[in-house]
Design goal:
Layout (H helix, E strand, L loop, with lengths): L5 H17 L13 E5 L15 H10 L4 E3 L5 E3 L2 E7 L4 E6 L25 H12 L14 E8 L2 E6 L6 H4 L10 H7 L13 E7 L3 E6 L18 E5 L4 H9 L5 E3 L6 H4 L8 H4 L2 E16 L6 H4 L1 H9 L3 H9 L4 E2 L22 H15 L5 E6 L4 H12 L4 E6 L2 H9 L5 E7 L6 H4 L20 H12 L3 H18 L2 E14 L2 E2 L15 E2 L5
Parallel strand pairs: 1-10, 14-15
Antiparallel strand pairs: 2-3, 4-5, 5-7, 6-7, 8-9, 9-10, 11-17, 12-16, 12-17, 13-17, 18-19
Helix pairs in contact: 10-12, 16-17
């Protein structure tokens, strides 16, 4: 008798998913296996409405279905999308976009009221006006409404011209417009479905929505009328379908990848990192023939943060905050806990790979200095055994325990408190934890996005300044950077601000993350970028030979 192990059960279950996925429609022929790109989301997708694309899982999905005015390439350069060109005038406050005339929404019967046949219509500037108004509509309550905070007004000048006027110059604004929040949606479809547009999405993207059984499977099919082409003028996308499953366990996901049932795995999880990688971050020999690894900088800073408004004397002590910063070996931490994936954060809060980063403004491992600083704190306060509580989630417990053991050698006792992610999110927003683990992933590729965490007008819960760091000098430079149109001068301001923050040590940068992607050898065209955006329109799969 065949024993149904958890692994075998997962394989049988996944096989059932595959059968259902590729047989999802009686109206469309079943695509060949090499024309279907399969990946797994271990987190559920909350919505396919781009106005709610806050989490990475949602962003990856909606990116296949929707487009905006502009888009970003793998080098983080802003490129045309539905807008074929634009001008920036009025001291960099007015953006005027000229739209393409060959962009159409996915076909839907609601576009044609005279018959039951699916129809479509082309995108006009008024569609962007509607989409942006919807984004700021308080009744919709989009988490992306903040992208319009710096906008004074916007309007459709005519069918092919859309204009945005800012309240003040903001050099990073084009990058902000690449976010999925700013995608164009059709008014008649959205208003017909209302809140159910989340599961009946109609966009302009390279793939169109086909089927969604929440937490089980999600299927997209090729948009045969997509407007973008490759360098040889071949229409994109190359694939016929995208199939997404929802196995919640990362180890099960990796097993499916290892067996060839999915084409792609993103990130490095503790459950399989030692299985696939050596301690120095190279593919192990038994995977080298079948798997390709892609890695590169990721605009994500992993850090520990202090709540500066606390009355806890260990937190208020600059000496102890600096002792923590120099009291553990980031290089050793990355080798043993991440198999060399990730960059030790010896610079500031701005991650490596983003203009403004400076490797000289942070902290290097110096155990003797850490001991000295802790000793001085004991002498000055009379506290013989200083203690501090570090709050984290289970995913980062190993990092916090590593730091705990390292700091114990300095004479500082660190207690680690593990709570659920939702609880930590609420607690840090409301100043209920004094020392906590956090991460900041860039919403757009400009260092201003990182430095906004230290602007005094952004105090949480009304903004991202979770530490409640406050500096008049910092605020002055931050506001000056908004008005600085000279690129080099603005970058210099960013570095100076980051240096000022590190001098006060309201945070302990641990590491700058890296994007790590594993694909099957027959997959090509899957690039990598520092925002970890999943771009599938240029992906190809070669047919495997028996």
């Amino acid at each position: 008798m065949l024993k149904l192990t958890p692994f075998l059960f997962n394989r049988l279950l996944f096989g059932a998913f595959v059968v259902i996925i590729v047989s999802c429609s009686s109206n469309e022929s079943e695509p060949l296996d090499h024309l279907v790109f399969r990946y797994n989301e271990h987190k559920s997708i909350g919505s396919l409405d781009p106005a709610f694309s806050k989490d990475l899982a949602d962003i990856w999905a909606t990116h296949q279905l929707f487009n905006g005015l502009v888009q970003m390439d793998d080098q983080l350069n802003v490129k045309p999308c539905i807008a074929k060109n634009w001008t920036i005038t009025d001291s960099a406050k007015t953006y005027t976009f000229t739209l393409r005339d060959d962009v159409f929404f996915h076909k839907n019967e609601l576009f044609n009221t005279s018959s039951n046949q699916d129809s479509t219509r082309h995108v006009t500037a008024s569609d962007f006006e509607y989409s942006f108004n919807r984004l700021k509509d308080k009744a919709i309550a989009s988490p992306g409404s903040w992208v319009l905070n710096k906008v004074e007004n916007f309007s459709a000048i005519n069918d092919s011209t859309f204009q945005i006027k800012l309240k003040q110059a903001f050099p990073a604004y084009l990058g902000l417009l690449t976010m999925k929040y700013c995608s164009v949606v059709p008014k008649e479809i959205v208003e017909h479905y209302g809140n159910d547009f989340r599961s009946h999405p109609i966009g302009t993207g390279p793939f169109k929505f086909k089927r969604w059984e929440e937490n089980l499977k999600l299927v997209f099919r090729r948009n045969n009328h997509y407007f973008e082409t490759d360098s040889t003028n071949q229409q994109l996308p190359y694939l016929e379908a995208v199939a997404i499953t929802f196995l919640p366990d990362k180890q099960s996901e990796f097993l499916q990848f290892a067996q060839g049932n999915i084409d792609f795995v993103s990130g490095l999880d503790g459950s399989y990192k030692d299985e696939i990688l050596t301690t120095v971050g190279q593919l192990k020999p038994n995977y080298a023939d079948d798997v390709t690894m892609i890695r590169g900088p990721y605009l994500n800073t992993e850090y520990l943060a202090f709540y500066m408004d606390t009355k806890v004397n260990t937190i208020q002590s600059l000496k102890l905050r600096k002792a923590i910063n120099v009291g553990f070996d980031r290089n050793k931490m990355m080798t043993y806990l991440r198999n060399g994936i990730g960059i030790p954060a010896n610079g500031g809060f701005i991650p490596k790979g983003l203009p403004g980063y400076d490797s000289s403004i942070g902290f290097e491992y110096n155990p003797e200095l850490a001991k000295q600083l802790v000793s001085e704190f004991k002498t000055e306060t009379g506290i013989k055994t200083p203690e501090i509580t570090l709050t984290t989630t289970s995913n980062y417990l190993s990092f916090c325990e590593f730091i705990q053991r390292e700091l114990q050698k300095t004479g500082l006792v660190v207690n680690v408190d593990v709570i659920p992610p939702s609880s930590l999110k609420d607690a840090k927003a409301n100043g209920q934890v004094d020392f906590f683990r956090a991460s900041w992933i860039a919403d757009y590729p400009d260092a201003e996005n990182y430095l906004s965490l230290y602007y005094s007008k952004n105090f949480a819960p009304n903004g991202p300044n979770y530490t409640h760091f406050k500096s008049a000098e910092f605020d002055t430079m931050y506001e000056a950077a908004y008005l600085e149109t000279d690129y080099e001068k603005r970058i210099a301001l960013y570095t100076k601000m980051d240096s000022l923050v590190m001098a006060s040590a309201p945070v302990v940068p641990m590491f700058y993350d890296e994007v790590v992607r594993f694909t099957r050898k027959n997959v090509s065209g899957l690039g990598i970028n520092a925002t970890n955006l999943l771009e599938l329109k240029s992906v190809k799969k070669a047919e495997l030979k028996n």
